[in-house]
Amino acid sequence: MSHISIVQTRLMDRDILLEALQQLGYVVNQAENLEIRSMDRTVKVDFLVEIPYSAPIGFRKSKTGYKIAADWFQIQLDPKKFKNQVLQQYAYLSVLKTLSEQGFQIAQEEKDEKNQIHLVLRRMNES
């Protein structure tokens, strides 16, 4: 059976999203006129994440954030795990960007057994 699911996210920043996907080890295709296809439906997307031996996962911009479009029956990944990894990496990069703009630097970083990231920050001296 083939079925495209679309999941709304609140991920707004394309550059941070692309960097998050690349840091997670995914190959991102940003060519023009990209689509996710199933037997009965086609969805236009802004970029694709190429998954080895699987159908790709698409991302499409909306007013409230990027939508994830995929036929999960043809993908060799757990959809919940994929989404959670992307959300965590996006949040991590977004926080780092904001804190850097405010003059902070990471002093210490740890990831615990629950995969939670803990940061200790230091404000840099302004000259």
Describe, in plain words, how this protein is organized in 3D.
The chain is α+β, with helices and mostly antiparallel strands and 127 residues long. It has one domain. Helices cover 26% and strands 36% of the residues. The chain is built from two helices and nine strands; from the N terminus they run βαββββββαββ. The strands form three sheets. A five-stranded antiparallel sheet has the order 1-7-6-5-2, covered by helices on one side. It has a two-stranded antiparallel sheet with strand order 3-4. A hairpin with a 4-residue loop joins strand 3 (34-37) and strand 4. It is elongated. The N and C termini lie far apart (62 Å). 19% of the residues are buried. The model has no long low-confidence stretch (mean pLDDT 92). This is DUF1257 domain-containing protein. InterPro entries: Uncharacterised_Ycf35.
